[in-house]
Amino acid sequence: MAEDGKQSFLNRVRVQKDLEKLTGIEITNDAIGEEFVAEFASLSHEQHEFVYHWAEVVARSNDELARQFVSNSVRALNHMDQFGVEQWVVRAMDAFDNRGLGAGIEIIEELDHFVSDYDGRHTRCTIDEVTTFLQHYVKGLGGRELSIMTDQETYTDTEKLFLPEVVNSFEGSNENESAYKLMAVHLWAQTWFGTWRYQVVERMIRHHDLDAVIPIFNRLECIRLDASIARELPGLAREMSKYAYEDQAHADSWEELKAAAPSLLNANASAMDSLELCLQFVETKMPRLKRYQGGIRPYEVREALFARIEREKAALQQALSEIQNEMQPPGAENDADMPVDPKELGEFSMSQDGDPEGAGEMDMQLSYDGDPVEMSQELQDLIGSVMQDFGEVPEEHMEGINPSMYPDDLEAAQGDLKGSNNDDSELENPISYREWDYTRQRYREGFCKLSEFDVPDGDESFVAETLDKYRGLLKSIKRTFEAVLGETKLQRRQADGDDIDIDALVEAYSDVVSGREMSEHVYTKYRKLERNIAVMFMVDMSGSTLGWVNDAERESLILLCEALQTLGDRYAIYGFSGRTNKRCEIYRVKTFDDRYDDATKGRISGIRPKSYTRMGVAIRHLGHLLNETRAKTKILITLSDGRPEDYGGYKGRYGIEDTRHALLELRRDGIHSFCITIDKEAQDYLPHMYGVANYAVIDEVKKLPLKVADIYRHLTT
User: Fold this and answer.
1) Of the candidates 259, 253, 261, 262, the residue with the CA atom closest to the CA atom of residue 287
2) How many other CB atoms are found less than 10 A from the CB of residue 342?
3) Which stretch of DSSP H or E encloses residue 248?
4) How confident is the model over 652-694, as pLDDT tens digits?
5) What is the CATH number of domain 461-485+530-716?
6) Range(s) within the chain of domains with CATH label 3.40.50.410
7) What φ, ψ does residue 397 adopt, rounded to 5°?
8) Taking residues 384-409, what's their average pLDDT?
9) Residue 211 has pLDDT above 90, yes or no
10) What does the alpha-carbon distance between residue 241 and residue 259 come to, in Å, rounded to a whole number?
């Protein structure tokens, strides 16, 4: 008996040491610590090895998440088999990859909820069983058509509703089917009641602490959306109330949050109100989401939103141009060789009856010069979708375009979207590149698929407007660059020259005194510097550059190209974007062999925001192009508005470490790298990626054109 007690004690000591090694935390000898060690020691050897294995796997992503897993591992194994525990851990890691540490810990802490779902597998309902019903049901609610997709998380990108593959939260299959419906309704409500208005997304994406804001904004919007549904769809609201809370504590936490934000219950409350309230709740513990409520993915929304805005603007303008043509009075047809003066065309206006955020179809009336225009269902749907994004139809969307001046094919009008698809389909004939995975401490060979695209021509007036806007600055830059051409370098210890090299003369005299022959190399002379430089500009074309950033990038490139005509340096310009490792995209703006002519100017004007920022593969590709270029000095200069970020976990430390390794590869090839960014938080990660002296942070977007040329001069002289 005593021997058994001794063995049990030794076993607990061994387990305690193993746990401390895994978690990095010294387990105290208090009652709680001893109780956990004792419980863990009671597990089988197989269970110990199982926990140790998964703790190591989770720790590769985050140490704190691993500690939380170990702390809850005994409870998990007491309620589920190992397969269930694996699903729980994987879901936590997925949440961490997509939404950060807080989301991962939330999954760990909600173990009881996961267990109840896992135990209810026999009553489960699958997405295949309800997709057709949900598709029709959501369509009947109103707004743009939303497709049903599956994902491990519940969210919407404003065009698709992502729902779990299986719902088994309730005892009956009918209840689980109803849960699917309520999930879809709540996501629809985000698109209908203005959660993802353009103005909200723009402000949210640029928040200095987005990771902290996301869970707060989500809860506040849940309050607002539930109130909106209760007003507009009371039947659904009553159904939701049946599924709302798991227990009284859960209900109380939501009531406390509602009491702290009463303005969100008002009919005129908006998503912008929710966003502005976030700062008041930074220190507040947020309640768990209700079972029908999903997460939010602002980056996925931004990508879909920006692509849709360009697409629908082009489609609406084309439709209005056709109406303009039809509305011309008899005998007013214009000669094909005489383009219509826009000033002579009439104006469109839009009126609406009812609440733009009310349930059901919107009653809209389009007018042309005050006269009502009969709209097709297709046009009504298009305008309705635009109003969902903006709350109104922006004036620039209402400017009809003379059909004779507009491409016959709408796809041609949307050429700037080519190469950035919204799906994950693979590119044709891509180039494969490896990617560094810091969690595995090795490369993932052939992981990234990259293709090159030409940038379509942009507005030809952009170049002229830029040159006019920066006339004075451009003259100053050119004078500075001309001075560079006249720079000389002092050469010492020459056999002949313009002046005496004092140091060399002293050394020569010492040789004579010592009995050695006097050197003739005692002169200095100046030699004109010869420039043998190849510079590659890598321009961020991610969706976050929409607006001022994109304009500033293009203006900077125009000024730089104009000035570089003076120096004669070899330079190239490429944009980069993409979506996932399967769709990495490089956009040719100017190759080393291209002249700075009208075609190049058109491509610079045509640089437009695309998708995401997977930097590592872009650096490797452009480094390869630089290696093929003959030059004594090779430089890669990146213009970017933020850190590396893409789908599939390419963010945070993963993206930073891959980019760093790509830059190290360039350094080994003799290529110098430099980054110019407007990200105010860049000092948190750029020194690690580029080195402390190889980046510059521009504090205001509008200063970018003023700084790029100056930085270039310093880098190349």
Assistant:
1) 253
2) 12
3) helix 248-260
4) 888 999 999 999 998 888 888 888 887 777 777 888 888 877 8
5) 3.40.50.410
6) 461-485+530-716
7) -75, -25
8) 65
9) no
10) 18
